[in-house]
Write a structure and sequence with these properties.
Chain lengths: 161, 393
């Protein structure tokens, strides 16, 4: 069986948000995978099944032309490009393939500086309900708690089904 | 009508010397590649001289006709006769201008052809010619590309080579006949490009590109059965991650660790390579006092172990060896691994003391003496934990 596998798409995960990683490793409950750009995240989402995915909205494009073109069209600005959202739409709606079997909206949460009213309509379209705002002075366990919430919600959802 | 020999000789000397002059101005590693293209060098030296020779010959011919014109006044009063006016000075100004244009064109062509990115692009294209025939790059050209990368300065120069290698790897893996054994030279070369000698260790950006390249290689390689490329890619990930740790390229080792996650397959061999790489990276991280990297490696190794029906063999050895290294990192680390061991120990085929003993014997046999010592201490420590006096909470 193994531990639940979590994907955290976040370009600051190894930098200013590194303090959020410690509690995850220390808890030894989850197997955490980091992706810091859209190319890497897309690669993981297509290759590895995850139990939960925590997605940032402002992520860099990485090496893939598909994402770097989107980024350039948005004026090479992470905030305008919102590649995290683009990635979610690509996964669920527009990459020409069915999303992987494991990928269901209830397994996804957004953890970003965007306020809920800014991205709410898009998340609604995607069916993603869990959204946590990054604010100054975050608790070190915020990510751990968010993962816990997503897993609980996702398990509850599959039981209801 | 006198021929301006001084000017013509000067231009000819310039034409002959220009390739040599530009060649000397190239970076040594680039010069080495360019000098190996003998026919190109010969043609760049000889062809302009040949053309210039023809132009001068035409000039001499026309001048000779001008002399005849003086002797025979019936010579046609065309454009030519106008050019031949003023003792042929106009003619030689025209010829010298053509010669200067030839010299200028040669300078432009050579500096374009011998620009670093053009040389690398050519090497990549030549190497890729082998794909249609053998499904892998032409080794000689690939080696030239790798050699160029090895001796290039870190940063943009190495980056150009890494980009070329990435494009080649992607082309190889897109071939229908790709079976997981065509990238050996390229993957080994990638290590050489990044870590040959202290002066030429790649920059942080170069390592980041290499991590991306290896991630891209790993996915198709993992789909092939008994993939040698996968094994080499995992080894390269381990080597580069440890180098990044040694050279204190902060944050980069985690990127390499994440690349290992893409080996998500049931292949037993891949699991063994992955566990070895995780042990190597994790133990190096402990040495370099980077506990977060060590914890990440241990967490991934723990995840890998928990996915197996039974934890045994190489996986058990690597897991316990990394635990032993972390154990040595202090009291808090001890508490962390003790808790982890408690949760995992039921998964071992052998009881924990025997599993530790087997791991220690394995390390002794494979000359990992430091790890072996750490395992001995861990054995002692866990005995004490079981007996109760220093039970970490």
């Amino acid at each position: 069986m193994g531990k639940p596998r979590i994907l955290w798409v976040e370009d600051s995960a190894r930098f200013e948000l590194a303090n959020l990683l410690g509690p995850i490793y220390a808890s030894n409950k989850y197997e955490l995978v980091l992706a810091e750009d859209a190319t890497t995240a897309a690669r993981y989402l297509q290759t590895v099944p995850f139990d939960a995915v925590i997605m940032d909205i402002r992520i860099p494009p990485g090496r893939d032309r598909q994402w770097s073109q989107k980024y350039e069209r948005a004026g090479s600005d992470k905030a305008s490009a919102q590649l995290g959202l683009a990635l979610l739409f690509w996964l669920f709606h527009s990459n020409g393939k069915q999303p992987p079997e494991w990928a269901r909206p209830e397994k996804f949460a957004v953890f970003s500086v965007e306020e809920k009213y800014e991205i709410g309509p898009s998340l609604e379209k995607l069916g993603i309900l869990i959204c946590e705002e990054k604010r100054p002075g975050l608790r070190d366990t915020v990510l751990l708690d968010l993962i816990h919430t997503v897993l609980q919600y996702s398990n509850g959802h599959s039981q209801r089904k | 009508m006198s021929i301006p020999l001084d000017a013509i000789t000067t231009i000819f000397i310039f034409l002959i010397g220009l390739p040599a002059l530009l060649l000397q101005s190239l970076a040594p590693e680039l010069r080495k590649v360019v000098r190996r293209r003998r026919w190109q060098l010969i043609s760049f030296t000889m062809l302009p001289v040949f053309f210039a020779g023809i132009v001068v010959a035409v000039g001499i011919g026309l001048a000779h006709m001008g002399e005849k014109h003086k002797a025979f006044p019936s010579f046609p009063t065309s454009f030519l006769s106008k050019v031949l006016k003023y003792e042929g000075q106009l003619l030689w100004i025209f010829i010298l201008t053509v010669l200067v244009i030839i010299a200028g064109a040669l300078a432009i062509v050579l500096s374009e052809q011998w620009r670093r990115d053009a040389v690398i692009r050519k090497l990549r294209k030549r190497a890729a010619k082998g794909l249609a025939r053998w499904g892998r790059p032409i080794e000689e050209e690939l080696m030239s590309l790798i050699q160029l990368g090895r001796h290039s300065h870190p940063g943009r120069n190495k980056e150009l080579v890494l980009q070329a290698l990435a494009e080649l790897a992607s082309a190889v893996q897109s071939c229908k006949r790709y079976d997981g054994r065509q990238l050996e030279v390229l993957i080994k070369g990638l290590e050489d490009v990044l870590i040959l000698g202290h002066l030429h260790v790649g920059s942080i950006e170069n390592f980041r590109t290499a991590a991306d390249l290896l991630s891209e290689i790993v996915i198709p390689a993992a789909r092939a059965r008994h993939s040698e490329d996968l094994k080499l890619a995992v080894q390269a990930i381990s080597v580069l991650a440890r180098t990044a740790l040694i050279f204190e390229m902060s944050h980069l080792p985690m990127k390499f660790l994440e690349a290992l996650e893409l080996l998500y397959i049931g292949d037993h061999a891949a699991g063994t390579w992955m566990s070895q790489a995780l042990f190597e990276i994790g133990s190096q991280a402990v040495e370099e006092d980077q506990p977060l990297v060590a914890m990440a490696a241990l967490s991934k190794l723990d995840g890998l172990a928990q996915r197996q029906a039974r934890i045994e063999g190489e996986l058990a050895h690597d897991y316990l060896s990394l635990v032993a290294h972390v154990w040595k990192h202090g009291e808090t680390a001890r508490r962390y691994v003790t808790r982890m061991l408690k949760e995992t120990s039921h998964g071992f085929t052998l009881a924990l003391p025997e599993a530790l003993q087997a791991a220690q014997a394995h390390c002794e046999q494979t000359a990992k003496f430091v790890t072996s010592d750490h395992l001995l201490e861990l054995m002692q420590g866990t005995r004490e934990v079981e007996n109760g006096p220093i039970m970490p909470s």
